[in-house]
Amino acid sequence: MIDNSSIAQVFARIILTDYHNESITQINYPGIVVSPINSGGEYLKDLLSQPGALYMAMEELYPSSGMYSLILAHNDRLILVGQHAENEEAVNELGAVMVSDLTAKAIVIGNYVYVGSVNLDYNSINSNRELGIIIENPQVAQEITTIIQQWYGETNTQKQQSTPQTNYTAPTQTLLLLILIILVIYMLRYATRPRRRRRTPRL
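The chain above was modelled as a monomer; its predicted structure follows.
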C-alpha cells in the first residue's frame, strides 16, 4: 500500500474515466503503468532494460509480449510463472519455474519494483485495461525478492517430495528385468504343462 495523494488521484482519475466510458490518451505521472497506453512500449521495456539481477513472478509470460530478448539479457535471473500451457515456452527458453496457483505480477531489478495487474502477454499489454506502478525503493525491492525466492524454494521442495527417490542403477535394472523374464517363462511353462489324471482311489 502506498500512502501518496498524487498517485491516488491519478488512479482514481483513470477509474472514473473508464466508469464514464471516456477515453484516456496519456498518463502524466511517472511510474504509473497503464495498459494499453504505456505498459508495453514504454515502462515495462525500460524496466527490463535496467542492469542487474532479475526476479520475476508473472502469471502469464508469453512470447507475444515481445519481452523475451530483454529477459534473456539478464544472466542472473529467477523467474516464476503460472501453471498455464502457454508458459511452457518460458520454462524452456527462459529457464522459468512453473508454480501452481501463481497469479502474482511482480518484477524486481536492483532497487526498482513493478507490481500491478499487467501480465507479459500481448492482450494484457495491448488490449486490456491494466494498472500497475513502478517505484524505486530498496526495502520494498528486497522484501519482494525475498518472497519470490521463498515461493521458488517452496516449489522445489514440493517437487522433491512428490518425486520418488528410488533411482535404480543400470545393473540393478538389468537384474530386475532378468528376474521378471524368468518369472514369465516359469508361468508360461506351468500353464502349458499337461496335467496328470487323478487316479480313482481303490476301496
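The helical segments are 5-19, 39-48, 68-72, 88-94, 122-126, 138-162, 170-192.
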